[in-house]
């Protein structure tokens, strides 16, 4: 048991720890039993935030397992497939990616070939801060892997040449079906394939194009149809770049390249994704050159930037608290502007409230001394799990639980909130 808690919080802590224990495979934590039977990259980073307080030994093993999937290019794939699950346990499985045919992919483990928001360096820093000096030996092998992960993103994925990473697939965003992806996805030719219908065809077509090109950076830069700079991905990338500088200090490496990279990402976020007239950050579609006119929760993620100018922090807090987001919901924060035509209270990233995005915004609010916003996010998240359990996502109006049960990051981040 970690911190001093009230009786009610103690019960929540114990319940959260039980979910993490049940979802532990021996080497990694699955996002949820049944639906997601493999290891997902940013899920593991969120899980590590919680395990750092509950089972730091497991947090370290979780990362070792994840980084076994890292490619020679530095890509940390968004799924590391379990070798003990049946091939059809999850769609799309290893056969879509065919990582085994790629010379840069690791041997002995099957993976996807996309990234996810790179929260890992920040998690590694939290793991180090939560442990005493003797336990920091894990950083010695991990630090170069984190550096390689960031180097891949800077080298192969800065498609606009600005310092920001581009997403090449909605699955890389972590908010897969966000309405923000509707316009760039509409431009993708699904090539008549029918897998699950609708956007699934386009998701699969995007991967097929990448795979046929050997997942090469030149193809992504010159020919791939979906190339988008996203504020959430890049805000997480920036927070982790700052964390890399601190990890460099801890391991005796040179922090200066990471500080310089952070400065560049900070500048590019403001120059390219801040929409002054709308008072929020928006994704930029590099194939049209334009900002995507949908306001989603991802636009608040740059609160994670410790150097965000005060007037922008204020504008974001005002919009977050307004009747378009938290002000309209009993259980904030809805993933999408509730006044948007695309808002849908019951569908994944098109409206529901999620623990992981609440946690990201809570972290950003704490860093900017937005006490009222931080308290609102903390209170909403704790009420959600107390009322409905550790679900994948929740109805933002009545707080009812939706999607998978016993969802790992909902449990892990509750531990971090309470710690
Ligand atoms: C969801 O994504 C997967 C594809 O990667 C799916 O829809 O099947 C998203 O919520 C993603 O952010 C998350 O990492 C993954 C596993 O929890 O599920």
TrEMBL record:
GO terms for molecular function: hydrolase activity, acting on glycosyl bonds. Signal peptide: none annotated. PANTHER family: MANNOSYL-OLIGOSACCHARIDE GLUCOSIDASE. Belongs to the glycosyl hydrolase 63 family. SUPFAM superfamilies: Six-hairpin glycosidases. Pfam families: MGH1-like_GH (PF22422). Keywords: Glycosidase, Hydrolase. Residues 36-410 form the Mannosylglycerate hydrolase MGH1-like glycoside hydrolase domain. The lineage of its organism: Bacteria, Bacillati, Actinomycetota, Actinomycetes, Streptosporangiales. This is Trehalase family glycosidase.
């Amino acid at each position: 048991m970690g911190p001093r808690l009230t009786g009610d919080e103690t019960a929540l802590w114990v319940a959260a720890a039980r979910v993490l224990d049940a979802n532990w495979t021996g080497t990694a934590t699955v996002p949820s039993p049944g639906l997601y039977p493999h290891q997902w990259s940013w899920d593991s980073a969120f899980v590590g935030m919680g395990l750092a307080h509950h089972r730091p030994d497991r947090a370290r093993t979780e990362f070792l397992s994840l980084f076994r999937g890292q490619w020679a290019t530095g890509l940390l794939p968004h799924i590391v497939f379990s070798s003990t699950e049946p091939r059809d346990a999850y769609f799309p499985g290893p056969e879509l990616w065919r990582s085994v045919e790629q010379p840069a992919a690791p041997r002995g483990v099957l993976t996807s070939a996309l990234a996810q928001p790179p929260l890992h360096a920040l998690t590694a820093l939290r793991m180090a801060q939560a442990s005493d000096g003797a336990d920091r030996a894990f950083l010695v092998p991990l630090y170069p892997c984190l550096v390689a992960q960031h180097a891949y993103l800077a080298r192969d994925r800065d498609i606009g040449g600005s310092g920001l990473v581009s997403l090449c697939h909605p699955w890389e965003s972590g908010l897969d079906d966000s309405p923000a992806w509707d316009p760039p996805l509409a431009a993708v030719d699904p090539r008549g394939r029918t897998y699950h219908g609708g956007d699934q065809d386009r998701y699969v077509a995007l991967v097929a194009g990448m795979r046929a090109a050997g997942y090469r950076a030149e193809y992504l830069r010159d020919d791939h149809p979906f190339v988008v700079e996203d504020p959430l991905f890049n805000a997480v990338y920036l927070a982790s770049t700052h964390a890399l500088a601190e990890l460099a200090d801890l391991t005796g490496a040179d922090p200066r390249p990471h500080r310089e990279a952070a400065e560049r990402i900070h500048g590019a976020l403001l120059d390219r994704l801040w929409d002054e007239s709308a008072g929020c950050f928006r994704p930029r579609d590099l194939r049209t050159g334009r900002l995507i006119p949908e306001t989603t929760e991802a636009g608040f993620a740059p609160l994670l930037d410790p150097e965000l100018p005060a007037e922008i922090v204020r504008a974001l807090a005002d919009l977050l608290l307004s009747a378009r987001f938290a002000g309209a919901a009993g259980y904030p924060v809805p993933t999408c502007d509730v006044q948007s035509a695309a808002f849908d209270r019951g569908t994944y990233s098109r409206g529901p409230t999620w623990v992981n995005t609440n946690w990201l915004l809570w972290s950003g609010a704490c860093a900017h001394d937005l006490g009222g916003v931080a308290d609102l996010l903390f209170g909403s998240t704790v009420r959600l799990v107390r009322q409905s359990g550790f679900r994948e996502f929740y109805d933002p109006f009545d707080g009812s639980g939706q999607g998978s049960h016993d969802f790992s990051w909902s449990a892990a981040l509750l531990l971090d909130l309470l710690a």
